[in-house]
Amino acid sequence: MDDLKPPMQPLHFELRDAEASCREAAEFRERMESRRSVRHFRPEPIALQAVMDCIAAAASAPSGANKQPWTFVLVTDPALKRRIREAAEEEERAFYGGRASQRWLHDLEPLGTGPDKPFLEQAPAVIVVFAQRSGEEREERHYYVQESVGIAVGILLSALHFAGFATLTHTPSPMGFLQEILERPAHERAFLLIPVGLPAEQCEVPAIERKNLDEVLVRR
């Protein structure tokens, strides 16, 4: 049985006292509470090395059986961004024109969203996250793919915010056009798009409130 044990290595872990843990947790909470979804971007280029470091942080996320079932496509080419916008807006027009229920459209009204998605061209970079349903060889199985990619995206959004970038999560449905435009293989499916950049001058966001902690936290 010993021959079946996987190779192991020492864990490098920085111990903190309670005061430091509370301080850093409060700082993280405060920083993340300032994050908002931005739909108006400056066109100026951004530090792509910083974006790639954020993607590297996301790629360190835990995943089912360590299969790491994600691909991050960083799009900066204006022609590709235009193709993505045109295809996304075609799907969005179908969504707002009848595919979505009246209840769904009613719930979206306070956010001021619509079928036009200029941010897909305005933002200097767009990250398209793909989920790998299996390995390149179909015999290689992947597990908990949605959960694993979701965790990675959460880390990515946090990292981009900490690096000083504005972001938005965009999920036109269906998203098959992304696989075609970005020439991704059959075992990958688009998970979401993340425009990345700096907010436009005098950028405004919807005045929304978040639930209080006692509404989302249950202690037992």
What does this structure look like?
By secondary structure, the protein is α+β, with helices and mostly antiparallel strands. The chain has a single domain (40-199), classed as 3-Layer(aba) Sandwich (NADH Oxidase). The protein contains 8 helices and 4 strands; from the N terminus they run ααβαααβαβαβα. The protein has helices at residues 18-33, 48-58, 78-99, 102-108, 119-122, 145-162, 176-181, 213-216, and strands at 70-75, 125-132, 166-167, 188-197.
Please provide a brief summary of the model.
Helix 2 (48-58) packs antiparallel against helix 6 (145-162). This protein is α+β, with helices and mostly antiparallel strands. It contains 8 helices and 4 strands; from the N terminus they run ααβαααβαβαβα.
CATH superfamily membership: NADH Oxidase
Annotation, overall tally of beta strands? 4
Number of helices: 8
Helix content: 40-55%
Largest sheet: 4 strands, antiparallel
Could you say which structural class the secondary elements and strand pairing correspond to? Answer: alpha+beta
CATH T-level topology = NADH Oxidase
The CATH C-level name is Alpha Beta
% residues in beta strands: 5-15%
Q: Which CATH architecture?
A: 3-Layer(aba) Sandwich
**Helix and strand string, N-terminal first?**
HHEHHHEHEHEH
Low-confidence stretches: none
Summed over residues and divided by their number, the pLDDT gives a mean of 95
Distance between the termini: 39 Å
Strand order of the largest sheet: 1-2-4-3
User: C-alpha Rg, in Å?
Assistant: 20 Å
Label the overall shape.
globular
Number of domains: 1
